[in-house]
From TrEMBL:
InterPro entries: Lysozyme-like_dom_sf, Transglycosylase_SLT_dom_1
Annotated ranges, domain Transglycosylase SLT: 62-126
Listed Gene3D superfamilies: 1.10.530.10
Protein's recorded name: Transglycosylase SLT domain-containing protein
Keyword Signal: yes
């Protein structure tokens, strides 16, 4: 066997190995992207909620509930119950009363959640008190 023949065989293997490493690296980078996007989304959702709930006490109570329910992930889904969104509405489609974009818009989910807490408990602070006693609201 000549050296040039061996080089021709070895060269494609090296290219394939390099391509595999490059693909794995890109895959790891892409896998890391959703975590960053979720963080950005959570931060954005919190900013939206803070604008919609200017009272510090009510915002803090709302935030504590949302943190425990969804971790501020507007796409959070409870696999067991089907509850969805920042405030884990059940059924999720109830949030459509706040807007047709309820599946994707944190502001719509916050509006619905705030309306729910105000109508059922009187305020987010009262909803938080109930949540602390029952671990749900």
């Amino acid at each position: 066997m000549s050296v040039s023949f061996i080089r021709r065989i070895a060269s494609p293997k090296k290219v394939l190995t390099t391509a595999a490493v490059a693909t794995a690296t890109v895959g790891m980078a892409l896998a890391a992207a959703p975590a960053q996007a979720a963080t950005t989304s959570a931060s954005s959702a919190q900013s939206i909620a803070h604008e919609m709930i200017p009272d510090a006490t009510q915002f803090t109570a709302f935030s504590k509930i949302v943190e425990r329910e969804s971790g501020w992930n507007p796409s959070a889904t409870n696999a067991a119950s089907g509850a969805y969104g920042l405030v884990q509405a059940l059924p999720a489609s109830k949030m459509s009363t706040a807007g047709s974009d309820w599946k994707t818009n944190p502001a719509t989910q916050i509006k619905w959640g705030l309306d729910y807490m105000n109508s059922r408990y009187g305020s987010p602070a009262a909803a938080w008190s109930f949540w602390q006693a029952h671990n749900w609201y």
